[in-house]
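Onboarding guide, step 5: your first structure request.
Type a short instruction followed by the sequence, for example:

Predict the 3D structure of this protein.
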Amino acid sequence: METNTQRLKGEVVILDAAQRSCVDEAVRETCQIRHWDLHAMNARTNHVHTVVSIGAKKPEMALNAFKANATRKMRETKCWQSERSPWADKGSKRYLWNERSVTQAIEYVLFGQGDELPDFDD
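The system replies with structure tokens like these:
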């Protein structure tokens, strides 16, 4: 059995179209409220990528804020009703040190994730 699968505390979460929409809204709202620059975002069925400038803040703070606000928004809209979090305990918090790395990250997030997802729930 794969190590990541063994670490799961619950069922694998697959985000549907409504949940992905909530995540998208929550990330954008979080950036707006905190005056962070959102360069790119892509909510997929099993993960979310963002490229965001947060100044001198620690990336853990951004990751936690995104997870908390996305969960809150999904619960408010009743598209996440579980008591547990839909998110893995960890997440990538990669620093991007120059313009080239930011550009590459944006391109990966927007275009390296495969085609845009259809609304499977229609």
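Each response can be followed by summary notes, for example: The chain is about 45% helix and 10% strand.
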